[in-house]
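Hi,

I'm pasting everything inline rather than attaching a file, because the server keeps stripping attachments. The sequence lines come first, and each chain or strand is labelled.
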Amino acid sequence: MNTTTETRSVVVERDIRHPPEKLWRALTQPHLIEEWLMKNDFKAVVGHRFNLRGEWGGVLDCEVLEIEPNRTLSYTWNFAHDDPAYNMQSVVTFTLTPKGAGTHLRMEQAGFRPDQKQAFGGAKAGWEQFFTKLEQVVGRAQ
Amino acid sequence: MPKNHDVLFRTLADPTRRAIFERLCREGEQTVGALTARARVSQPAVSKHLGVLKQAGLVRDRQEGRQIHYSAQLSALAPLIDWTSRMAGFWESRFDKLEDLLKRMDQ
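And the predicted assembly:
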């Protein structure tokens, strides 16, 4: 069995024209999180386990790892799926740094997941799902 | 998002074109005639879609006698299937929504 694993991370950064305190509310209050990310039962308590529910029906298993008000928020972002190509175990960390009157927002998602080769070649069963997701992305981009 | 993503997204955003590409993925190499027989558009329209798919690197053509055979190039999808690219696109679009929300929170 091929048990190759690989760690990768994604970093997305953006300068936001709002102060860290306000951004922090959007990152930590469930009704606000829902507006920009997903439905959730988040609580700003280290160790709290919660779910993020995507509009595509997917449910992410999360656990709060770190909270430093107005500065750092970190939680696990795990997605269990039978198809290893979609399985995901990762940690999302938001870092807020004051910048002028606004905030520099940095999101790092560090992933730890099996090798992805299975997504290629004969794994045609995954295509339908892939295209559904693609459609969602395209829909958002328009 | 990087440029090649835009091209792939744009190419596959058209439902007819996507259906042609999906059929080539599922059923393997086919001629324009075979594809047209089951598409709801004319042969010139199918040819045009194949041309766009070819330009995006999503299909390859092969001449055999009078017939041209088309096949899907799954490797062209690598940038989309790649986990990091997918997630970066996801977060960029979520940050757009986050900024919209912050604007509304002013009121």
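Strands of chain B lie at 30-31, 59-64, 67-72.

If the labels don't parse on your end, tell me and I'll reformat.
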